Amino acid sequence: MDVAVAGDTHGAYALGKLTAVVLDALAEGATVRGGPLPGGGPGAVAERLRAACAPVLPEHGTGAEEALRTVVRAVAEGAADPADPWCAAHLHCPPLAVAAAADLAAAALNPSMDSWDQAPAAAVLEQEVTAALAALVYPREASPDALITSGGTESNLVALLLARERARAAGAPAVRVVCGANAHHSVRRAAWMLDLPAPVTVECPGGRLGPAAVERALTELGPGAGPVLVVATAGTTDEGLIDPLPELARVAARHGAELHVDAAYGGPLLFSDRLAPLLDGLDSAVSVTFDLHKLGWQPVAAGVLAVSRTELLAPLALRADYLNADDDEEAGLPDLLGRSIRTTRRPDVLKVAATLRALGRTGLGALVEHCVATAREFAALVDAHPALRRHPGEPGISTVLFRPVAADSAPPAEGDALVAEVRRRLLAEGRAVVGRAVAEDAGGTRRLWLKATLLHPRATADDLAGLLGLTAEAAGAVAAAGAAGVAGASGAEAAARTPHVPEPEGP
Ligand SMILES: *Cc1c(COP(=O)(O)O)cnc(C)c1O
């Protein structure tokens, strides 16, 4: 039986052998898939996966090499691969190879970040990296701090938790959250989980949270409402828009409210000297959510919550005698437990540290600039396309909304149904992964749009041009068939595949 462990010097040999199997299986799976996602739709994908991997709990094992070949190959064959430029629906990035390689080391060493005796060096690395990221967000603060989280959802949850505890400590009524209709759903869910009053949701015509509307909401709440946390977004999930942070910070300050900024998407603009000014006002926030598994090219998970002063994290302090006994701490063992709401915790910081060191701030900044520039060029290609129409606003950070003009000639509900069907058709054919978003059209009507979220650090607008022809072609086919009741792809269409970005080094 194969029971080699991964760590230590011997582990490295076992791991090297198995890693070679994994890399072969990844390549084979990608070749069989031949595009950004598997063709055939959910039923066919499920059938192939089950056929390849059954039984998932065999009575007797098949051994490590066979298991890896089978499982990795099946998952790779059935993957939506963001390394393909035509996989551009979500804030779902292609991880950098350096980050994925570092993550292998994290898995092999398996430090757990909840006590010093499980992560002696990894804990120091986390401290150094979080300090650097906190200083990036809060360059003028004397003692900013940051936590590593599992992503924007956990960061927003902890931000609201800390706000709730500040209100409690002050003996004030429960904190009221004021956010835009454009805020990420995790903000409302966090309020629900924390048993806070439902957030006051401010309408966002044009996709951004308007300072005047927030001012009205704060005035309506009045001083008797107790503490208020205004939640703004820097990079909305649907449109990539940045709320006017300096104005929102001023309005909040005038009403004695605190500001939290959800910069899960936009935070990494700070790496670029040219783009960082788009986040002016960010450091007025008491806390900032910041993801590195979006514009940061980390394998999931890599979230950050930055706070302006390290004391703000005090409510997370916790004693568990087996992890951070008082006498251990007095003897000099650092206490890590209060740096997360989790206990056992992956060393996600390892891949982040390797990436920061490999690319440097300017290297990461250049990748962010590339994505922003590519979105502008892609928007221009949409504008030039006779069969497509772009959303009237400016493109967001690296998000472009568009729809087939064929959808405009139908009544609104049918037009939206056509847009949705075009997206599903491309998915079923395995040819492209584009997202969907509801956003206001000129004149204020809310319509359904196709969404391209461009996070590929090397794909160019040229690589994406074919995606537009494909979309227009799909729209033509859907319109011809009638928007309702069209399902699936024809085999001939599924045979046409997308380009892959050539790798800089040879195989
Ligand atoms: C992605 C996103 C989140 C959620 O982050 P996860 O990392 O998916 O948990 C929160 N807010 C915004 C603005 C996002 O784009």
Textual characterization of the structure:
This protein has helices spanning 8-33, 41-53, 64-77, 97-109, 120-137, 152-169, 185-193, 211-221, 245-254, 321-324, 326-330, 349-384, 412-429, 461-481, 491-495; strands at residues 145-149, 176-180, 200-202, 228-233, 258-263, 287-291, 303-307, 388-390, 399-404, 435-440, 446-453. By secondary structure, it is α/β, with parallel strands linked by helices. Among the domains are: 1-79, no CATH class; 111-346, 3-Layer(aba) Sandwich (Aspartate Aminotransferase, domain 2), CATH 3.40.640. The protein has a seven-stranded mixed beta sheet with strand order 1-7-6-5-4-2-3, with helices on both faces. A four-stranded antiparallel beta sheet has the order 8-9-11-10. Helix 2 runs antiparallel to helix 3 (64-77), helix 6 packs across helix 7 (185-193) and helix 13 crosses helix 14 (461-481). Mean pLDDT is 94; it is low at 483-499. Pyridoxal-5'-phosphate binds next to helix 6. It comes from Streptomyces thermolilacinus SPC6. Keywords: Decarboxylase, Lyase, Pyridoxal phosphate. Belongs to the group II decarboxylase family.
